Amino acid sequence: MERFARTARRPTDGEGIVAREKHDRMLGYLAGRGGWTTATEVAEVLGVTPRSVRSYVTAVNTRTAPHDVVESGPNGYRLNADGYAVYRRRAASAFESETPRDRLYGLVRLLISAPSGIDVHETAQRLHVSESTVEGDLGRVRAMLADTALTLDRSGSTVTMAGGETERRRLLSRMFRDETDRGIVELEALQRAFAPNEFSPFKGELLEALTARGYYVNEYGIANVLLHIAIAIDRVTKDRPAEPADHAPRTPEVEAVAEDLARLVDAHFHVTLGEGDLVYLSYLLVTRVVTPGSGAPAEVLVDDYVNQDDLAAVRQAVDRAGREYLVDLSDEDFIVRLTLHVQNLIRRAQDQSYSRNPLTRSIKTSYPMIYELAVFIASQLQRHGSIIINDDEIAYIAMHVGAQLEQKARKEALLGSTIVSAGYYDMHEVLRRRVESQLGDVLDVRSVITRTDVDWAAIDTDLVLTTIEPPAPADGIVVIQPFLTAADVERVRTAVSRVRRSSRLSEITDELLQYFHPDLFLRNAHAEDEEGMIRLLGERMIAREIIDESYLTAAIERERMSSTAFTDTLAVPHAMAMTAHSTAIAIAVNETPMEWGGARVSVVALVAFSESGRAAFQTVFDQFVEVFSERSSVARIIRRSEDFAGFIDELVHVIDG
After folding, report:
1. Hey, is 527 helix, strand or coil?
2. Which residues cross the membrane (predicted)?
C-alpha cells in the first residue's frame, strides 16, 4: 500500500486572528447559556461546522492548560468557571504575544509609543518572528487605521505612525475593549494593562465625589470612561499629554468634576494630568456617566438643568410613541429625566463618542417591544438633533422606557386571587395578612370565603388559595396550610408563573396563528443580505395586497437603523408605522442560517401591522419573539416544517409546551 506523509498545515496569521475571534464568541455564548450546549447549536451560532467547534474547544483548553475552559460530555459542552477566569485574565493582560491577534495589537502599541518609529528588522527579532510576518502584520495595521485619522509612514525599514494623540488613545481604547470579554471593561484588566495601582479604590472615591455633587451615576457607562482615564495616566507617564480639548466645553459642571478628578488621580496614581486631559476626561464623565438632579423633583430639574427645546422634542417623541403603540408614557417625572439623558446623548452623538451598553443584546432579546418603543423614540430624536443614535444608545432609552412601563404595570400585572379558609375566630384575617405580606407583589386578594360548603364553580379569580381540600385538583387551585409556610409561598409562586404562562400562550395561540397564510410561508429561501430577504418576503405580501411598496421601503429603513435580529435565531423586520392594509406575517424558515446584523438567523418573519391591528401589536410582537427565543424549540420547528401545515403544527406544539 502506498504510504503518504501528512504534514499539518499551520494556519496563517490572518486565519489565527479569525480563529481567536471565533474562540471568544464561542466562550461568550457558552457563558450566556450557563448549562450544557450541543456542538451543533454552537456551530450554528458561529457559522461553522461542529468539527470546527471541537477544534476551538481543544485550542482554548490547550491555551489555559492545565485548566480546561470548556468541559465536554455526552450533552455537549459547558463552561468551566475556573478555567474561564484563567482565560479572561490572560486575554485581558497587556497584549501578550500568545496569538497572532495579541502580536498584532502589541505591534500597534509599539507604533503608538514610538514617536520616531520602529525598525522592521529589530521588531521581528524582538517578537521572535520573521520579517515577512511583521510585514504582514503592518498590512493589517493599515487596515485597522482605515476608519481613523492615523496613518503609517515608511522610510526604508522604519515605520512611523502619524496622527494626533487623541486618535492614538481612541485606537488603544478600541483594541483594549476587543481584547476583553465581549467589550466589557474590568478594573483588574485596566490595572494590569495601564496602571500599577489598584483602580477599585479610585473608582469608589470618584463615585462618592460625583454623588456628593448631586449626580446620578450610570454604573454601566463609567467602566469605559475609566478606560480613558487609565489610558491618559499611561500616556502622561510616557510624556504624551492630550491635545487641547477644543470640542469639550469648559462648563461649570466640567470644571467642578475636573477638580475632583485631578485630586483623585494625583492621590491614587501620583500623576498630574494636564489641562487638556482633565477637561476632556471630565467632559466624558459629565456626558456619559452622570445625570444631574439626584433626589430633586421634576419642576426643580426643569428650572435648573433642562433645555426647553430638548424637553419639547422628548415630550413630542414620547407622545407619538404612546399613541402609536397604545402605551401610557405621559408621566412628567419620566419625561424630564429622559430629557436629561437625551441632552447628554445629543452631545455624545455630535462628538460620535457613544456610550457602550453591555445590556444591549439582552434587552433586545428579552424585551423586544420595549426596545421597539425605544427605536421609535430614537428615530424622532435623530431628526430633532440631526444625529445618529446607535444600538447601545437606543438600549439606554429602552432602559428608561422599561423602568417606567414596569412601574405602571406592576399593579395591573397582579393576579386576582381568592382565599378559602373556614371561619374560626380571626384566622382567615391572619392568613390574608400573611398572604398579602408574602405574595403581595404577585397577587391581589379580592375575596375571602370562610364557609366550608364552597361553590367552587362560582369563583372567578385567576387563582384560589385554600385551606380546604377541593373536590378535585385543578390548575388554578393551590392547597395551603392555615398558617402560611415557606413551602406554601414557593408553591403559590410556581402556580402564579404557570397561570401567567398559560394566559400568554392562550393569547398567542388565538392571535398569532391567524396572521399566517400558506402563500406567505417560504422554506429554505435565501437572499444575498437582509434587504434582499425583506424584499423577497415583502413581494409576497404586495402580491396579496397586504402592503405596498412604501411599507416595504419603511421596513428596510427601520432595519438600517437597528438590526431586528431579536434572538440568536430570529429576525423580525417591520416598519415602525402601522400602515399595512391588513395585519399578516410572511415567514422564511431556513435550514442554513444567514447573517443578519451580526447574528446568524434561521427564521425571518416580516411583520405587517395595520391601523386596525394596533391593539394586538404588543402581544403579538413580544410573544412571537418569546416563542423563538429557545434554540431547541426553533431547531425542532426548522427540522419539521417541511411545508406550511408542518410549520403550523410545530408552532402550536412549541406554544403548548
Report:
1. coil
2. none
Q: What is the DSSP letter of 242?
A: P
Give one DSSP letter per residue of 121-132, joined into a string: HHHHHHHTS-HH
CA 600 to chain centre: 16
Contact present, 285 and 213 (Cβ < 8 Å): no
Spell out a b/e string for 367-391, using b for 16 or more CB atoms within 10 Å of the CB, else e.
Answer: bbbbbbbbbbbbbbbbebbebebbb
User: Which candidate, 574, 572, 570, 588, places its Cα nearest to that of 521?
Assistant: 588
For the CA atoms of 306, 312, 316, 322, what is the dihedral angle to 10 degrees?
30
Asked if 51 contacts 93 with a C-beta cutoff of 8 angstroms, the reply is no
Question: Which residue reads 487609565 in cell numbers?
Answer: 230
Averaged pLDDT of the chain: 85
Instruction: Give the torsion sign (CA, 241, 242, 246, 251).
Output: negative
Note if the pTM is more than 0.90: no
Contact 559, 606 (CB under 8 A): no
Over the stretch 133-170, which tens digit does the pLDDT of each residue have?
A: 899 999 999 998 988 889 999 999 999 999 988 889 88
Task: Tell me which amino acid residue 452 is.
Answer: T
For the four alpha carbons of 41, 44, 45 and 49, in that order, the dihedral sign comes to: positive
